[in-house]
Specification:
It is a single chain. This protein is of the alpha/beta class. It is built from 17 helices and 17 strands.
Length: about 525
């Protein structure tokens, strides 16, 4: 059993409370997903559970975590620098049970993840693996340790569809406790039986949390239905209040007129005592009504508040591409690894016309990211289209030591900075977050910075490497609608099944023989 009692977490820099008086009990068989918008503290919660000292550099926590003899294993969202420097064999060797496992067990683990067994014993540095390969090797080491609690921060990031299906099986069949964060709505819908929703409302001035013992789809449907019902009831209560207040206003006016009449009549009033009694009765009625209305106001249904993902339109400044225009006519005899040591694929051919949305899938390590970089080198100097590139690793093009405003501004004058701050506000950045170094922000917030850069660039051709990888499942539908409505062309690399289905009109699989139509439907 894993039990958290009265946990409160506060950011050290801006003193913003991201989790308040949070309590939770998890038992074997619980598959709990943590959802919420970017920067709401999901990763911080997992780090604190695994090792409270991991958040000491940026947050303060008060609370108790009772682990009752459980063996915890943690998958970080980003591979730590010290692990990236190790060889694959050295990394796996740090788990004692790696040597106690039989060759058959290790071979089975490698095969289930779609990895060659030779990789487990190789001297290749962890940092040179593809994004998906890094996640797979880390998963292999975690499972070899035979934990009873798995804490997984974005385990679905960058892994191919076969590995996603393997991950689904692992989560569903794991006998212990799993607490995970993921952007992949399909994975969440197929595995989670408990939802933990972290929110920051009222311009991130107030936090709240919800723990729901149900699957994700049921939770989102109930949440939306409850929101709509409460909104309708609040509107009905407000209408009734306006009618009531108008009646009350007329009664007050009648009392005021009676008071004026008595004062003007003076000694000429035929029955001043009776007039005074009538006025007194009306005043008592007024006081009674006021108290009753105050009680009714206190019981009125509040207008519901929920955290909206973003308010943003991509491609507002982009020049639309004519339907027949050839955006890309690309041919490559051989695709080499970036170090030039081996050929990844041959006879690559890709033709894109108009505002086409194309997605490239394929197994981890097949060269998708490398191919996208090669195509970017060809497109970036074109003058007949305006291309922009969003890499898988944001630090390739973003100086993460700068603030979000400085990451986006090109001129740096007051007018541009004001405009950028306005856009960041629409993306749910607080004033304090606009002054943080981008490195201190969540992966999803860094992705939002990139989206804004793409929009302000006026690009009408976008090259996107895993564009949805860091967005919350609640933001996912908004991001997909935004990209589907983009007026230009998009060439992307993704394994996000909902993104492929809802955004991409054409899907290719990168193989050793080039780009092929997938033999099985990737839109599952």
């Amino acid at each position: 059993m894993l039990q958290i009692q009265h946990l409160t977490i506060t950011h050290s820099k801006d003193l913003r409370v991201i989790l308040k008086d949070f309590s939770l009990t998890l038992n074997p068989g619980d598959k709990a997903v943590v959802i919420g918008e970017e920067g709401n503290g999901k990763s911080t919660l997992l780090k604190w559970i695994f090792c409270p000292e991991m958040i000491d550099s940026y947050a303060e926590a008060e609370g108790v975590c009772a682990k009752a003899g459980e063996r915890l294993a943690y998958l970080p969202q980003q591979l730590p620098a010290e692990d990236a420097a190790q060889t694959v064999y050295g990394f796996l060797s740090e788990e004692d049970l790696f040597f106690d496992s039989s060759p058959k067990t290790i071979s089975k683990a490698a095969a289930s993840l779609g990895l060659p067994i030779d990789l487990f014993y190789s001297d290749q540095p962890m940092g040179t693996l593809s994004g998906g390969e890094k996640v797979k090797v880390q998963l292999a080491r975690l499972l070899l340790a035979q934990p009873t609690v798995l804490l997984l921060d974005e385990p679905s990031n960058d892994i191919d569809i076969d590995a996603l299906e393997y991950l689904e099986r692992v989560i569903r069949t794991f006998p212990g406790i799993i607490l995970f964060i993921s952007h992949d709505e399909t994975l969440i819908e197929r595995t989670a039986n408990l939802v933990i929703h972290l929110e920051q409302i009222h311009r991130k001035q107030q936090c709240r949390h919800t723990v729901a013992h149900m699957d994700y789809r049921e939770y989102t449907e109930r949440r939306q239905n409850a929101f709509e019902k409460q909104a309708q009831q609040a509107q009905s209560d407000l209408r009734k209040k306006k009618i009531r207040d108008e009646k009350y206003r007329r009664i007050l006016q009648s009392v005021d007129r009676a008071q004026v009449t008595i004062n003007h009549a003076g000694k000429d009033n035929p029955d001043p005592m009776q007039a005074a009694r009538n006025l007194k009765d009306k005043m008592h009625t007024i006081k009674a009504l006021k108290k009753r209305f105050e009680r009714e106001d206190a019981q009125m249904t509040e207008k519901p508040v929920q955290e909206n993902p973003i308010d943003f339109t991509l491609g507002e400044n982009a020049v639309p591409i004519p339907a027949g225009k050839i955006v890309l006519d690309f041919a490559l005899p051989q695709l080499w690894t970036e170090d030039g040591e081996r050929v990844l694929a041959e006879n690559i051919r890709l033709l894109m016309r108009g505002a086409e949305k194309v997605c490239i899938t394929g197994s981890n390590g097949c060269g998708k990211t490398t191919l996208l970089k090669v195509i970017w080198d060809q497109l970036k100097n074109r003058t007949d289209v305006r291309a922009a590139y969003m890499p898988q690793n944001y630090a390739d093009l973003l100086d993460l030591s700068k603030t979000p405003v400085d990451c986006i501004c090109t001129k740096g004058d007051a007018e541009e900075r004001t405009m950028v701050r306005t856009f960041l506000g629409a993306l749910r950045f607080t004033t304090a977050e606009m002054e943080h170094p981008a490195a201190a922000l969540s992966g999803g917030q860094q992705a939002k910075i990139f989206l804004l850069r793409l929009n302000l660039s006026g690009a009408n051709v976008l090259l996107l490497d895993e564009p949805t990888r860091n967005f919350s499942p609640l933001s996912g539908p908004v991001i997909r609608r935004m990209l589907a409505a983009f007026p230009g062309a998009i060439l992307s690399v993704s394994h996000d099944r909902k993104y492929i289905e809802e955004v991409c009109g054409t899907v290719y699989e990168l193989t050793e023989a080039g780009l092929q139509i997938p033999s099985r439907c990737s839109r599952v």
